[in-house]
Amino acid sequence: MISLNSNILVTGGAGFIGSNFVLQWLTEQRTPVTVLDKLTYAGNMENLASVQKDTRYGFVCGDIVDGAMVRRLLDKQSPAAVVHLAAESHVDRSILGPAEFIRTNIVGTFQLLEAVRGYWMELPTEQRSAFRFLHVSTDEVYGSLKPTAPAFTEETPYAPNSPYSASKAASDHLVRAYYHTYGLPVLTTNCSNNYGPRQFPEKLIPLVMRNALKGLPLPVYGDGKNVRDWLYVEDHCDGIRTVLERGVPGQTYNIGGRHEVSNIEVVRQICTIMDELKPTGKPYASLISFVKDRLGHDRRYAMDISKIERELGWLPRETFASGLRKTIHWYLDNPEWVEHVTNGSYQEWINMQYIPTSPVGAVSQ
Ligand code: NAD
Ligand code: DAU
Questions:
Q1: In CATH, which of 2.40.50.140, 3.30.70.360, 3.30.310.50, 3.40.50.720 is domain 8-197+230-255?
Q2: CB-based contacts of 72: which residues, under 8 Å, 6+ apart?
Q3: How close is the Cα of 111 to the center of ligand 2, in Å?
C-alpha cells in the first residue's frame, strides 16, 4: 500500500495516459510526483502546464534507455513506487518503423528494471517491502479474437501480432521475470483502447475529430468492422491507482471498459455528436472514407475484467456515450492544443501513412 506521504516516479508522464495519470494523482493522492519523459513527438509539456507551478510536481527530461541516469534519479528522489508508462505506443508507426519500439519498449524497460532493482535492493527493509514497480501494458499482447470468442482473461496465452504488441509482450515478460528471479515487487496492468483529453491525433478518435473539423476525409481502415474495447482514460488512471494500492505483487490485472464497438460505429458516433455540437450544414458522416487496411490488423479485442472487479473492487465509471461526449467537448474547447501538437513532424507522418492510398492528407491544411 502506497502511504499518503510517499512520492512516486512516473515514466512517460508527458504523454496521453501519463499526463492524465499525473493530474489525477495530484488531485486524488496529493503526494509528490516526478515525471521522467524523453519528450518524443508524443510527449508534450503543455499536457502538464496546469501543474507546472505545483511544488509537488517535478519534471526530468530523459530517456529510460539511459540506466545510469535513471539510477541517479531514483537515488535522488527516493520514490516509493515507479509507474512505467513510457513507450512507443502507435501500432501504425511500429509497422513502418519497428526499431524505436524495440529500443524504448524492450531495451528501455530492461534498463529501467535494472536501475530499479539496484535502487530497491539498497532500500531499508520496510521501504523495500512497500516498494512497487507498476508496468502499464496493453490488451494487444493477447492477439486477436474471433467474433464470438470469449474475452481475454489474465490466463489467455500471449500472441502479439504487430511489432508494437510484440515489444510490449517482451517488456511484460521482463517485468514478470524480475519478480520471479529477484523478487522485485512488480504489478502489471493490461488495458484496452483508451480515449479522452490530450490523446495525440494519430490515434483513431482524435484523428477523426481533427479531420472532421478541417473538412478532411475520415479514414476508416478496411471494412471498418474491426472491434475494440474502449475505456475513458480517467477510468484507466483510476484503475492503475487501484492496482498500485491494492494489487498483489507478481500479479497481472486486465483493465477495460466492457464496451466493444466496431471502428465504423465509433466514427459514426463521433459524427453524430459533432453534428449536434458543431453543425456545418453537411453531415460529418459524409466525410467517411474507407482506406487500405492496416497490415496484420487485429480483428477484435475484448477484455474480461472480472479479476480486478472481484479482487480489487474496480469498475469503469464512464459509459462510452458520456466519455465520448466529454472528449469531443475537450477537443472543441482546446483547438490551440491540437494546433501545437500537430505543427511539427505531424504532417510528415500523415503524408507517409495516408497519401499513398487515400486522399486523407492531400487536402491543403
Ligand atoms: P503516448 O505515446 O501518448 O505517450 C508515451 C510517452 O512516453 C510520451 O510522453 C513519450 O515522450 C514518452 N517516451 C517515449 N519513449 C521514451 C523513452 N525512451 N524514455 C522516456 N520517455 C519516453 O502513449 P500513451 O497512449 O499515453 O500510452 C502510455 C502507456 O500505456 C504505453 O506503455 C502504452 O503501451 C500503454 N497503453 C496505451 C493504451 C492506449 O490506448 N493509448 C492502452 C493500453 C496501454
Ligand atoms: O488496445 C490497446 C491499444 O490501443 C494500445 O496498446 C495502443 O497503444 C493504442 O494505440 C491503441 O491501439 P489501436 O491500434 O487499437 O488504436 P488506434 O487508435 O491506432 O486504432 C483503433 C482502431 O481504428 C484500429 O482497429 C485501427 C483503426 N483505425 C485507426 C486509424 C489511426 C482506422 O480505421 N483509421 C485510422 O486512421
A1: 3.40.50.720
A2: none
A3: 28
